[in-house]
Write a structure and sequence with these properties.
The chain is built from twelve helices and eight strands. The chain is α+β, with helices and mostly antiparallel strands and 444 residues long. The strands form three sheets. The chain has a four-stranded antiparallel beta sheet, with no helix packed on it. Strands 1-4 form a two-stranded parallel sheet.
Length: 444
């Protein structure tokens, strides 16, 4: 018994809080360091680079070329623009040539504009995906923060239970020593205290696991969370009022603002633009070219000339490659449209689930607040009845166990309401750091 009480007292000692960790700070650290968001940001950078690559087709291309060749038999050094027998052409086996040229596509029947539109839509999709990753990480961080608060609250309820049972065990021993109680009362109290101490060990382990999870999401050392005090959280009245809108209004808001839906819309736009680019491959391209060319042999003088031209490129037969490319683009566009429908259906389902969970959580919280008040009063009355001899120790222990369960459930219910509201905000596309500041109230 002494060992159990000593262990309980040691476990009941709170951690040495050195700093206050707010939920906003936890979210900021997670957004700044988590690899999921970093990967999404890199995806936006990739998409932005692809937009620049697509837009580069609107500008002329300039190139510099040079060559040095040795022939088996003498080759004419300079091109023959005219034949003058009085000045025969120069031949040599070693020739050199250098040129600078430019080319510009005059018209391609919308191929370039379609590729630019597709790239811009992909960039918009990557940006929306980044928003989805950030909102998901914010929701996970808030959930981890709430789990730490919940497990710490349950641990505090365990401490109250251990303290109450410790007092009852001491009372039973004192009454046994005075000859006013049976030994079975001390054994019963000791058994309940031992069970409470064992449960507290499990609750302490749950606290540690929750703290590790939060620290991992933040990219911070475990001690940053373990040695920190976390503020209690509650929903602001404005947040509660915003959740009272109709289902149809929520579905419409999710369709307009949900990051997953927006990403699917942009991907569908990109797929449609790719269809236009593929179909443009059936038509010719008109291109203008110009160049300045220098030619010479190894030891002779350089002779320069310029050239300007307009050309047409129109592959007549490609073995079905163009048709296959168009079919592939059409199929990709159809798949993107169906994926958009699927995303909208899934988002609508998430709205329904989040609304139902939020309403159920609030109703359960109200019921548990009443249950805790009643259980507290029952425990007080049974303690008084036991002291005056009208009640039994068993009644008191049962009342204390019921009070502990009610307190633990209340702690979980309070945070479940906040978690359900956070999930609803994520589905509606409104979850952000600004939403946290305006919708969640935190007290040190």
């Amino acid at each position: 018994m002494i060992r159990i009480l000593f262990l309980s007292a040691a476990l009941a000692a709170p951690p040495q809080d050195t700093v206050h960790l707010s939920v906003a700070t936890a979210v900021d650290r997670a957004l700044a360091s988590h690899p999921a968001v970093a990967a999404a940001r890199a995806g936006v950078d990739v998409a932005a680079a692809e937009v620049g690559q697509a837009k580069a087709a609107w500008l002329p291309s300039v190139s510099v070329d040079g060559s040095l060749n040795k022939f088996q038999k003498p080759m004419v050094v300079y091109p023959l623009h005219a034949l003058d027998l009085r000045n025969p052409p120069l031949f040599d086996t070693e020739l050199s040539q250098a040129s600078i040229g430019a080319a510009y596509t005059l018209y391609d029947f919308g191929a370039r504009s379609s590729r630019v539109k597709a790239a811009e839509s992909q960039r918009a999709a990557a940006t929306a995906s980044l928003g989805a990753s950030e909102q998901l990480l914010v929701a996970r961080t808030l959930g981890a923060y709430l789990r730490v608060l919940t497990t710490r609250g349950i641990l505090a309820a365990e401490d109250q239970r251990v303290a109450a049972l410790g007092a009852e065990a001491k009372r039973a021993r004192d009454r046994l020593a005075a000859g006013k109680a049976a030994r079975v009362d001390t054994l019963r109290a000791a058994s309940e205290l031992a069970n409470a101490a064992a449960d507290r060990v499990n609750s302490a382990a749950n606290v540690e696991m929750a703290e590790h999870d939060l620290a991992r999401l933040m990219g911070a050392p475990f001690a940053t969370v373990h040695n920190a005090s976390l503020g209690t959280m509650s929903l602001a009245s404005a947040s509660d009022a915003a959740a009272a809108t109709t289902r149809d209004a929520m579905v419409a808001q999710a369709d307009a603002a949900n990051a997953d839906v927006q990403a699917a819309i942009r991907r569908a736009d990109a797929a449609m633009a790719s269809v236009g680019a593929a179909k443009a491959g059936r038509l010719p391209q008109f291109q203008a070219t110009t160049a300045l060319i220098d030619r010479s042999n190894i030891t002779g003088r350089w002779l320069s000339e310029w050239q300007v031209g307009v050309g047409l490129a129109w592959p007549i037969y490609t073995g079905g490659a163009r048709t296959s490319a168009i079919n592939r683009a059409d199929a990709s566009a159809n798949a993107a449209q169906e994926q958009l429908r699927l995303t909208r259906l899934a988002t609508e389902q998430q709205v329904d689930e989040a609304r139902a969970l939020y309403d159920a959580s609030r109703a359960r919280l109200t019921a548990l607040e009443s249950a805790v008040a009643q259980a507290t009063e029952v425990a007080r009355i049974t303690a008084l009845a036991r002291d005056v001899g009208d009640g039994t120790q068993t009644d008191y222990l049962i009342a204390e166990a019921s009070l502990f369960r009610a307190r633990s459930s209340l702690v979980q219910a309070r945070h479940a309401v906040i978690g359900a509201r956070v999930e609803l905000a994520r589905v509606l596309g409104e979850l952000s750091r600004a939403w946290i500041v305006t919708s969640l109230e935190s007290q040190p």
